[in-house]
Design brief:
Elements lengths: L6 H15 L4 E13 L2 E9 L6 E9 L1 H15 L8 E11 L3 E9 L1 H22 L16 E6 L4 H11 L8 E6 L7 H14 L6 E5 L14 H8 L5 E4 L8 H5 L2 E2 L3 H117 L1 H5 L5 E4 L2 E2 L11 E5 L4 E5 L2
Parallel strand pairs: 3-5, 6-7, 6-8, 8-9, 9-10
Antiparallel strand pairs: 1-2, 1-4, 2-3, 4-5, 11-12, 11-13, 13-14
Helix pairs in contact: 2-3, 4-8, 5-6
């Protein structure tokens, strides 16, 4: 049976071999897949991927002890403007360490921020190149800030000091200009900046008609949290947004990609508020100047018209006299013509009336004679039909209740009848 080593003995051999063969420190390029801090120490996981297939080629653990990390971290942030985070490419100075209990790890003694800056710059240039190829890099620059930009959609953290400074600057402007702001709360630092800001932009886009401009502001945080503003997805959303976007994310370093694709970039939230105040103030100044120019033009036009009227007033008496003389002559001629025409018309109508009078007299006499003869005939007929005349010849009229009796069969016993004779009336009772 072969002689076996204990695990501890084997790990001790590995440690001795590493310490013997891998003396000194090494610079290594790698990508951070994990990054965390605990009790002042920094723990990292390093990976290497194939450039073409993105297949994982190597993986290793690394750590930086607190004493070293306290020096490395501030310098890295000061140079790069960012903290270390997953996905970042770094150049680390390391030496190997193998512990029988905890295994192998690389101990970090230094980080080269220039390498990271170069990688960041390459990524930024790649994003810029892609945006230009898509034709969207300058789209925001084609939008004009409205002259009366008063309805402001604000993307910021509700608790950020910069947001408060922005609102105070707008409210306390010396010209007492009125602005209406609405906050779309977003994460403005850390890993979720991209997703959060894009979500806020989507909400604003759904109500685009309610706003004039969008302001993305950040303030009060460290300079190490700007990586979220250097992403392709966020840049595309900003570049294609239908409203002008003003950025004031509070840093003095080189522009981030968000600044490059926005309509207007200012350094701080306060500067963003001052920009909007100045824009509206310039509009009101332009309106005031236009008002003065209009008033001046109107005044000048009135003066010209007054002068023209004065000239006309002076010309009116002469013109009126001439016109009056012409009109009097025209009226005189018209009067003579009218009188002549009236006399002729009256004479002609008089002759017509005389003729009609003669004709009417003849017609009337003839008609009266005919009507007189007709009346005589009717009179004779009435006389012939007069009951009284018949009574003279011995006829009588019998009545019941005032009505003439034509048929004796209509009478009944007991009826009282009246019989009218030539002279007198007889009452009888039917039996």
């Amino acid at each position: 049976m072969p002689q076996a080593l204990s695990l501890y003995e084997l790990n001790s051999l590995v440690r001795e071999t590493i310490e013997t063969t891998l003396r000194g420190e090494y610079w290594v390029e790698a990508e951070l897949s994990e990054y965390r801090e605990n009790r002042g120490h920094c723990y990292m996981e390093l990976i290497q991927k194939d450039d073409n297939s993105a297949m994982l080629l190597a993986r290793a653990a690394a750590k930086c002890w607190r004493s070293t990390w306290q020096t490395i971290k501030p310098y890295f942030i000061r140079v790069t403007g960012q903290e270390l985070h997953a996905g970042m490419k770094v150049m680390l100075k390391v030496y190997p360490q193998f512990h029988e209990q905890y295994g192998f790890s690389w101990i970090v003694t230094d980080i080269n921020p220039e390498f990271t800056l170069g990688d960041m710059a390459r990524k930024r240039q790649e994003i810029i190149r892609q945006l230009k190829e898509e034709g969207v890099f300058d789209l925001q620059k084609d939008l004009r800030i409205p002259m009366f930009a008063q309805r402001i959609a604000v993307i910021s953290s509700a608790t950020a000091a910069g947001y408060g400074d922005f609102c105070n600057q707008l409210a306390d402007n010396s010209l007492h200009l009125i602005f209406h702001t609405e906050l779309f709360a977003s994460t403005m630092q850390g890993e979720h900046v991209e997703q959060s800001v894009i979500a806020a932009l989507n909400m604003i886009n759904d109500r685009a008609d309610d706003f004039d401009v969008v302001v993305i502001i950040r303030g009060g945080g460290g300079t190490s949290d700007f990586s979220g503003f250097d992403t392709l997805a966020l840049a595309e959303n900003v570049a294609n947004f239908p409203l002008p976007i003003i950025t004031g994310i509070g840093h003095d370093r080189d522009e981030c990609i968000l600044d490059m694709v926005s309509n207007t970039r200012v350094k701080t939230p306060t500067a963003a508020a001052a920009f909007l105040v100045d824009n509206l103030a310039a509009t009101y100044d332009a309106v005031a100047d236009a008002e003065k120019r209009i008033a001046s033009c109107v005044s000048h036009s009135l003066d010209v018209e007054h002068m023209r009227l004065d000239r006309l007033i002076k010309q009116i008496p002469l013109l009126f006299s001439t016109v009056r003389a012409k009109e009097e002559m025209r009226l005189q001629r018209a009067n003579i013509s009218i009188c002549s025409a009236a006399a002729s018309t009256i004479k002609a109508r008089g002759m017509e009336l005389a003729t009609l009078e003669r004709e009417l007299s003849s017609i009337t006499a003839h008609t009266m004679e005919a009507r007189h003869n007709r009346l005589k005939q009717l009179e004779l007929q009435l006389r012939a039909l007069d009951p009284a005349r018949m009574l003279k010849y011995g006829y009588s009229i019998t009545r019941i209740n005032g009505k003439a009796v034509y048929d004796a069969a209509t009478l009944t016993a007991g009826d009282t009848i009246e019989t009218t004779l030539r002279t007198g009336t007889i009452k009888s009772t039917v039996k």
